[in-house]
Write a structure and sequence with these properties.
metal-binding, HARBI1-like, globular, about 15% strand, 5-stranded mixed beta sheet
């Protein structure tokens, strides 16, 4: 993803975003965004009925998913687009190239001790930190952990708003061939980065849809992930 020097710069920028309330060791933030598409049952498509229904998310809206990972500058450092809207964020993550590497070869992607922040839809690992599931009995330190994580992770939501606001085509993609949707979305993410590099910026009030299932947490029982989260939780409780 980045050279060691560049990676450390990204981590330092994340630390400067929230001051003492920053979540430590953050390299990026991940989330899924639903992009509205034409209903797959259009006469122009030859897609089997079973495959057509896969594009409907839980709100019964036809969409394709964009999985994005952004840095502190709201630039996409990885994007993976085109999966049907019925897919869960955790499944898309595990099947993406970046997800496979983060799970099997994290040292190739991230600097030592660093991690990416996700919401409760993602698996907990040593390289992907997610909040504690709020069952109404969280300790003060766990609540602070969740608050700091959410505060640092907000960059992915801001990036999606800017992306959709800048490229209005992503509000509804009237593309008949669904295999082309991922190409258009990926191209938009690349152009979004170029705009930021050239200081072509603006404030956007656009909203995006993240189809996280409430209460549907897919936490990995990985010992390293749980141990690291507990250590960070304790570290944040001492700082705050």
């Amino acid at each position: 993803m980045a050279t060691n020097h560049k990676a450390q710069t990204v981590v330092q920028k994340f630390n400067s975003l929230r001051g003492e309330h920053s979540f430590p060791g953050v390299f990026g933030a991940i989330d899924g965004c639903h992009i509205s598409i034409l209903a797959p049952w259009e006469k122009r498509t030859k897609m089997p009925k079973l495959n057509r229904t896969m594009f409907y998310n839980r709100k019964q809206v036809p969409t394709v998913l964009l999985q994005g990972i952004v840095d502190s500058d709201l630039k996409f450092i990885d994007c993976f687009a085109g999966w049907p809207g019925s897919s869960h964020d955790a499944r898309v993550f595990r099947r993406s190239i970046i997800g496979e590497k983060l799970l099997s070869q994290p040292c190739v992607i991230l600097p030592p001790g660093c991690h990416i922040l996700g919401d409760g839809a993602y698996p907990l690992t040593s390289t992907l930190m997610v909040p504690f599931k709020d069952n109404g009995h969280l300790s003060d330190s766990q609540l602070k952990f969740n608050k700091c994580l959410s505060s640092s992770r907000v960059v992915i939501e801001q990036a999606f708003r800017k992306l959709i606001g800048r490229f209005r085509k992503l509000k509804h993609m009237d593309i008949y061939h669904k295999e082309n949707c991922s190409k258009v979305i990926t191209a938009a993410c690349c152009l979004h980065n170029l705009c930021i590099d050239n200081s072509d910026d603006f404030n956007s009030t656009e909203i995006y849809t993240s189809e996280m299932e409430d209460g549907n947490h897919h936490e990995d029982d990985s010992l390293s992930g749980n141990v690291k989260r507990q250590e960070l939780c304790q570290q944040l409780s001492l700082i705050l």
